[in-house]
Amino acid sequence: MQTLGTRPTTAGRAGLAGAPREPLPELPAVEAATGAELAELYRLMTAVRQLDVAAISWQRQGILPAYAPELGQEAAQVGSALALDPARDFAFPTYRELGVARAFGVDMVEYMSTHKATWHGGLWDAAATHLAPIQAVVAGSVLHAVGWAHGQTLEARSAANGPANSAAGSADGLPVAITYLGDGASSQGDVHEAMNFAAVFKAPVVFFVQNNGWAISVPTEKQVAGGSVAARGAGYGIPAVQVDGNDAAAVLEATRRAVAHARAGHGPAIVEAMTYRRGPHATSDDPGRYRSLDEEREDAGADPIARLRERILAEGVATEAALAEADAAAAAEAEALRLGVIALGPRPGAEMFDLVFQEPTDELKRQKAAWREESEHE
Amino acid sequence: MQTLGTRPTTAGRAGLAGAPREPLPELPAVEAATGAELAELYRLMTAVRQLDVAAISWQRQGILPAYAPELGQEAAQVGSALALDPARDFAFPTYRELGVARAFGVDMVEYMSTHKATWHGGLWDAAATHLAPIQAVVAGSVLHAVGWAHGQTLEARSAANGPANSAAGSADGLPVAITYLGDGASSQGDVHEAMNFAAVFKAPVVFFVQNNGWAISVPTEKQVAGGSVAARGAGYGIPAVQVDGNDAAAVLEATRRAVAHARAGHGPAIVEAMTYRRGPHATSDDPGRYRSLDEEREDAGADPIARLRERILAEGVATEAALAEADAAAAAEAEALRLGVIALGPRPGAEMFDLVFQEPTDELKRQKAAWREESEHE
Amino acid sequence: MSETLTVSNNGVAPGASATLELSLQGALNLALDELLAEDPKALVLGEDVGTLGGVFRVTSGLAAKHGAERVFDTPLAESGILGMSIGLAMAGFHPVPEVQFDGFAYPAVNQIVCQLARMNYRSRGAVPMPVTLRVPSFGGIRAPEHHGESLEALFAHVPGLKVVSPADPQQGYSLLKAAVRMPDPVIFMEPKSRYWQKGLVVTEAAANLGTADDGGDAPSSAEITGAGLTDAGLTGARIARPGRHLTLVAWGAMVARCLQVAELAAEDGIDVEVLDLRWLKPIDADALATSVGKTRRAVVVHEAPRTSGLGAEVAQIITERCFGTLKAPVERVTGFDVPYPSGDLEDEYIPNIDRILFGIQRVLEYKRG
Amino acid sequence: MSETLTVSNNGVAPGASATLELSLQGALNLALDELLAEDPKALVLGEDVGTLGGVFRVTSGLAAKHGAERVFDTPLAESGILGMSIGLAMAGFHPVPEVQFDGFAYPAVNQIVCQLARMNYRSRGAVPMPVTLRVPSFGGIRAPEHHGESLEALFAHVPGLKVVSPADPQQGYSLLKAAVRMPDPVIFMEPKSRYWQKGLVVTEAAANLGTADDGGDAPSSAEITGAGLTDAGLTGARIARPGRHLTLVAWGAMVARCLQVAELAAEDGIDVEVLDLRWLKPIDADALATSVGKTRRAVVVHEAPRTSGLGAEVAQIITERCFGTLKAPVERVTGFDVPYPSGDLEDEYIPNIDRILFGIQRVLEYKRG
Ligand SMILES: Cc1ncc(C[n+]2csc(CCOP(=O)(O)OP(=O)(O)O)c2C)c(N)n1
Ligand SMILES: Cc1ncc(C[n+]2csc(CCOP(=O)(O)OP(=O)(O)O)c2C)c(N)n1
Ligand SMILES: [Mg+2]
Ligand SMILES: [Mg+2]
């Protein structure tokens, strides 16, 4: 940005341009991932991989009507989720965050229910798990994360002014929101509004962008002008970091830095994880119409799980046998999930009416009664 | 923005981050304003000032039901508009661009009709004048400007491929769109979408931001995170310039650079003119509720017209007498406008029905007939 | 202990145990003031609602009194305001956001329809949305474009929303309190052309005193019910004027106009009942059926364009319930299917007294063909 | 010269002088292909409409054939897509934007309502908006949330929009061509559950051959009219099945369901007329009056939630026009006032055959109370 003219006349007012812009705050340094953490990353990533690959085959077998694979994004998802404390922080997923859900300890049958067309948001309890329901509108939840995060600031301030027995705003800092979005979602106006609101209110929120190269068939270079979502942070005064999204330890570290910044009350941060959507957009998609297998191979790079495995073995963090054990546990988990998903029946139709409001209306009660009479198949 | 991790795995793909970001293009240099141009700026600015100040008094006298003054923004509006060619370029105003309309040669009675509550968009012919109708949604037109601008690119390309007799895309470059928006409007999601679309399509559009310190009662520092709208350009790879918006010659120069960039087919540019809303938001507003007169005086700085006048006299571009003549012409214009505005009657109610569609529907014809029968007062 | 005070602007103490004369704007301000005082989780947010107190001054003085953290200005972005309110609700707050004018709810429609209205459902009740969105609504003030819209048909069609519009200061005070206390999202449509109209308001404190039988000249329980202070009174429609020959159904600013029309009609011996619908979703179908069951004729009046307006729903509910006794098809007197016009033409657009009288006449003179 | 071809996917030459068997998706593809060929100002834009050819392949092959500048992918932002289309129209183009699914029209509502629908009015006719917005619409495909919405009541309420929905391949082909050629904005709602259903399509070239009286076995003019190829046929409703006892009014995917219902009812000796409304704004009130004037009974069917749905408008129009002869109040069989549910429950939500039959029964058995 250039500056022209003698001197902006409104320079006298604090915050108005002409005054030199404040330098971007630095994200605090954090400890590198420990060996135990690398092993934990591996355990989770191999589990996520197996569940994900299995889900694709379940779709082919007719167990699931559709599925949106996260193949190749295990490092980005698990690495970021491990930087959070699910007991106090809150995560806002899209429709592709199996890895985050698994790392947050969400029941996987309840998670898969969304792909089984049982319930749009999934069956898990969002309030208890601190994982918001599935969000099918791209960028739909970025603003919710900002609002939730600002709520933490308000709680902390009122605790600071009020009775001392409140936990919020303690020396441990603020609870932090993390919102997941894709390269495609970054084009939505809501993302801009969210980043601006977050910066204006200094909300403790981390914008975690999985830049996986594609929004269905549209490649990032036709989507993200300037080439990077993280680069937009500077315009809002939000510190941002771009990270190799297929390097789980690097993602963990980058997200931890962003979370530490937010937790300390310094406001929002952006992490852009450069990764690759190795599979189709969803099981109904046909990537052959817009990218060749050769391109896929070249652009995807090395498998994030293979990379982590290599490092773990090279650094002697765990043995081949221990990793094989993790793989076997993951396979068993996938099989258990398969049985759970098959056993999952449809929800009773009455829930359509009962869950609209906390206080159902008489009109809905009438409609429910009519539905029972005319359509209930029990 | 920092980069973490070994190397983004998708660096192989053109345009994906990890690859070093392209440096922002420089806006081309242009000639400084000539003496004749300074005089023209003065003539226009004094006319705009007198019309604007008169309009406020007309509102007090009941000639206009309401008015949104542009007091203090004459340099930003006239300076930017003079950088365009109304014969081929197209301007998209908000509700406060009296100065742009006047510089574009729009009939001032037809312009004032919007404030007289005659017709929302104003009575002038937008297609003929190349000034879009009044836009009451903040940021409502930024995307239209991008679309119109991309249309010029498409015309130029098809002319280049098609018969040689088409004017578009000639050696003179592309027609350019300019869209006006305020510091408040910059918070809208549409502005982000527009900047991203413009950069992706390399559309010949100039985003002209009048940062006048206020969005009704909300000061820029609570509105624009990071402190500058121009600073956001870098995130999209859009060159941007921040200019002293009360220095008419500097605004003219900055806008010319932006227009030259767009005209040459290099894509969008942003100009942020730092200025000050000296009056109330609109005649119904009471600025005393949110800023003191002392603050106003301090933040507003020197009057842009006084500044230009001083410079013109100092540089000997025109004589006191010539400037006084311009002032007198402006006063006469204001008086003529007053008579024109008073003479302006209401539009016939039938237009409510006739102007909805190019091809009115039978239902609308029925409603019009019913209206004639029940309500027409002629 | 209650007394009638004339209060020309803000500055009424919350909890005032009095019957006050207030403008709608003042009544809403008092309701918000009392809500902020009673509920530490209540928040007010939007464009210019803080320092300025809102362009209609409905939030005037609240930031100074309850703190700039509880009553705050946001950047100028309606999707942002709604999205942030949703997140605040997820964090346990009870936000009362404002969009500055009806027409600026459109940029927030995605957040309203896909998020605010569905979060409770999507989360299976785990994440309720106790959010009341205030929308200065309808036309009549010669304002710029997009400042005179009637969005009730849109909102009423959205599953998961409740929609309400007060017609006078008492309704404004009582319905806003009811809305904000609800655990579900409510769209609160304020008739902006009525902001400065005054009326008597029985505050909750006064009403409680009344029922506490303190021996003072407290409002009677009938007065309170009439004022809509009982629970039952707050969830349904309201007879604004009883009558025998025909039911005029209206909401928002059209209620006052229909009351005028009823006076004029009375001069011709036509006894018009005016039903203030109040709740536009859910609609009080029983009240419609009771009234039209008695009068056997109905006209529904609204400012919004005719086609697919809420008048169609009201008319159809009446027809469904009263087909056997209806003397004529329900008549609609509405805005036209044209964009809301500029000030010079708005009296041509909004249903005026003449057009409503014509509608009444058509119903009264209807002969089966 | 015309012949019946079976075409399983895209690849029909524009201007094919034939009666073709096409899916709705193929018929729309052909219409766009021909429109791009005939009108150099026509453009197709949206998410994934270029290289991929759209998630439903409606734009398949068009970019390759007509150029990546005329059929192009945009960034993922619906307000951007609409806003850009408006600007392109201001520059003299005839954009045919797509929003990928109904539910993603909500982020564009501000541009649709305040801009697209009003630019002609605001500019006093100087800046027309020849824009056709394609919206894959309605439910029935077990899709994720927000992929099964019915927005016709919202669109039909907006002054300045025209709204249409085709029920079969012929309607898709003919109505899309009519819409894109109009000088006003049209919302084109494609019933996504019908994309893969096949039917015969008389192309315009074939129809022209027929009227050119070339002696070949061209479709008769009655066939053409039945296919909706005449001007008159394209601006109003269409009798999809004549009948004497009751009129079923439907649009989009519900037309096929109502035709099924009519067959079942016929087994019980009930002769149902099915009226395919086609244009949802303006509504063909004359066609409704003519049909119900004859049958004296009507049921309107739609997928959208009941309250403030377009069914209310249709019912009220019928009641206004036919009150004197109607045997029973118009019945509505609709979606419920609940968010569109997940796949497992969508058959409970969308009006099914049973519920429509119950509706018919209620009308037939109605006794004045
Ligand atoms: C507002 C909105 N528009 C369109 C869609 C349809 N859609 C679903 S996913 C998708 C692409 C998303 O790309 P990105 O954000 O990069 O996420 P990814 O799929 O790569 O994880 C699109 C267009 C949607 N869900 N929401
Ligand atoms: C979408 C939208 N929201 C709210 C408003 C109401 N409003 C009109 S002007 C204004 C402030 C605009 O500030 P800014 O963009 O800085 O322009 P300025 O008034 O300073 O010229 C607001 C909130 C509007 N017109 N449009
Ligand atoms: Mg992506
Ligand atoms: Mg401003």
Main features:
heterotetramer, A: 378 residues, alpha/beta, Rossmann fold, 2 domains, five-stranded parallel β-sheet, two-stranded antiparallel sheet, 44% helix, C: 369 residues, five-stranded mixed β-sheet, four-stranded mixed β-sheet, 15 strands, 38% helix, globular, disordered N terminus, binds thiamine diphosphate, binds magnesium ion
3D architecture notes:
The complex is a heterotetramer, with two copies of chain A (378 residues) and two copies of chain C (369 residues). Chain A is an alpha/beta fold and 378 residues long. Chain A has helices at residues 35-61, 74-81, 98-103, 108-112, 126-129, 142-161, 189-201, 233-236, 248-263, 293-300, 304-314, 320-343, 350-354, 362-375, and strands spanning 2-4, 90-92, 177-182, 205-211, 214-215, 218-219, 240-244, 269-274. Chain A folds into two domains: 35-278 and 295-347, Thiamin diphosphate (ThDP)-binding fold, Pyr/PP domains (Rossmann fold), CATH 3.40.50.970; 348-378, no CATH class. Chain A contains 14 helices and eight strands. The longest helix of chain A has 27 residues, at 35-61. In chain C, α3 runs parallel beside α4 and α12 (285-295) crosses α13 (310-322). Chain C has 369 residues and is of the alpha/beta class. Chain C is 38% helix and 19% strand. Chain C folds into two domains: 7-202, Thiamin diphosphate (ThDP)-binding fold, Pyr/PP domains (Rossmann fold, 3-Layer(aba) Sandwich); 236-364, Rossmann fold (3-Layer(aba) Sandwich). Chain C contains 15 helices and 15 strands. Chains in contact: A-B, A-C, A-D, B-C, B-D, C-D. At the A-B interface, β1, α7, α8, β7 and α9 of A face β1, α7, α8, β7 and α9 of B. One thiamine diphosphate sits between chains A (96, 136-138, 182-185, 212, 214-216, 277, 281) and D (47, 76, 100, 104, 107).
